[in-house]
């Protein structure tokens, strides 16, 4: 087990290379043109920020900020 303490980083590199190979294989199977042709419609955007941001902290043009 002395070799494991010296060369553990090689096992990590082999693992990472295996992960990268699997990622490349899986991404090559993805058909992006088919997805773009059949992509679902997005729902309308709802802005929830208007409920909590009612006050305006910035001074209007020509006005100085009140203290």
TrEMBL record:
Sequence segments annotated as region (Disordered): 39-67
Lineage: superkingdom: Bacteria
Protein name: UPF0370 protein DET57_101126
UniProt KW keywords: Cell membrane, Membrane, Transmembrane, Transmembrane helix
Family matches, as Pfam families: UPF0370
Family: Belongs to the UPF0370 family.
Organism: Klebsiella oxytoca
Alphabetized InterPro entries for the sequence: UPF0370
Protein localization: Cell membrane
Membrane topology value: Single-pass membrane protein
Bilayer-spanning residue ranges: 6-24
GO cellular component: plasma membrane
Basic and acidic residues composition-biased segments: 42-51
């Amino acid at each position: 087990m002395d070799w494991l303490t010296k060369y553990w980083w090689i096992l990590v590199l082999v693992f990472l290379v295996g992960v990268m190979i699997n990622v490349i294989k899986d991404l090559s199977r993805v058909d992006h043109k088919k997805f773009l042709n059949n992509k679902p419609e997005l729902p309308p955007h709802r802005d929830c920020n208007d409920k909590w941001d009612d006050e305006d902290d910035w001074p209007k043009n020509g006005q100085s900020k009140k203290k």
